[in-house]
Amino acid sequence: MAEHLSQSELDYPFKLLEYFNGFRVSKVIFSACELGVFDLLLHSQKPLSAEEVSHELRTSKDGMKRLLDVLVGIEILEVELTEGTAHYSSTDVANLYLAKSSPKSLHDMIIYQSQTIYPLWNNMVDAVREGKNQNEKTFGLSSEDIFSAIYRSEEEMLKFMGLMNSTWIIDGHDIVTAFDLSCFKSIVDVGGCSGALARELAKAYPASTVTVLDLPKVVQTAQKHFIQSDDTIRFQEGDFFKEDLPAADLYVLARIIHDWKEEKCLTLLKKINAACHPGGGVLLVEALLFENHRGPIMAQIFSLNMLVQTEGMEHPPSQYTHMLTAAGFTDVQVCRTGKSYDAILALK
């Protein structure tokens, strides 16, 4: 495939040019979300002209027209001409995933990508040269304490928690049903943040108790901003590196292990093994690399993001298996979901 692609690219580098402009396409979507384009079009009773959109959102008409036309070009918006005037409307995909008011909205994920990840990636060259995150260069914060950087203000904490909420709203069900977890009657989501994945666990396994364990300020923010009226999940304050873990049948580590160096990961996994009830286990949720270094491209990109933002990386299944067995777990099972995140279940 790669060889065929290279041959065709010799005639004209279509694919390379598409890649070169990828960051511009991302920023078009990010900007439209930040400006409120998708919510305006969702709630409009009719297609709107660029002039109408710019008036409602208080932007220049010319700038908005250009932005809307690109969104049409990448098939996120629709356009129709009426007496020479273009009128724009949303596609079903935009209404479902890009409008802030949609129950499956990725708006919070997009805001985090635009305002936090995008600036970090501007220092990718330095990250590769130095082999460390770029929190200090990008935000003027210590590169050592990564979550002090991620949670550097209540506003930033809310952005990050919104990101995680969006992630598990679209990926959570596939993760919690990758294995039958009904035999685990007590489940602790370690570092469960907003509680979005815990809610998916509670929906799938209503006979199980599900507890979110996270830092006090995270738990307090979750209970203030993300609590739902029908919640059956519990929240417990605690630092899972420094304090004892509550006993449970199953511990969930969703996008936790990839944040840290192996030594720190092993310390946490051994601690979980010690706290785990006999016959219990741990569920890792990560974006799994292929063993042959050929993908998946999303996991490879995530791994680069771990370089610029944390001290960890993504791994192939063999590395997670190594860490889990070294921590005392057995019977390691891997499930690739075919989506952004995969699951690994290991038993004590």
Describe the structure in your own words.
The chain is an alpha/beta fold and about 350 residues long. The chain has two domains: about 1-95, Orthogonal Bundle (Arc Repressor Mutant, subunit A), CATH 1.10.10; about 105-345, Vaccinia Virus protein VP39 (Rossmann fold, 3-Layer(aba) Sandwich), CATH 3.40.50. The chain is about 50% helix and about 15% strand. It has helices spanning about 1-10, 15-20, 20-35, 35-45, 50-55, 60-75, 90-95, 105-120, 125-130, 135-140, 145-150, 155-175, 195-205, 215-225, 260-275, 295-310, 315-325; strands at about 50, 75-80, 85-90, 185-190, 210-215, 235, 250-255, 275-285, 330-335, 340-345. The strands form two sheets. It has a seven-stranded mixed β-sheet with strand order 6-5-4-7-8-10-9, sandwiched between helices. Helix 15 (about 260-275) links the parallel strand 7 (about 250-255) and strand 8. The model has no long low-confidence stretch (mean pLDDT about 95). Catalyzes the transfer of a methyl group onto N-acetylserotonin, producing melatonin (N-acetyl-5-methoxytryptamine). This is Acetylserotonin O-methyltransferase. Its EC number is 2.1.1.4. Pathway: Aromatic compound metabolism; melatonin biosynthesis; melatonin from serotonin: step 1/2.
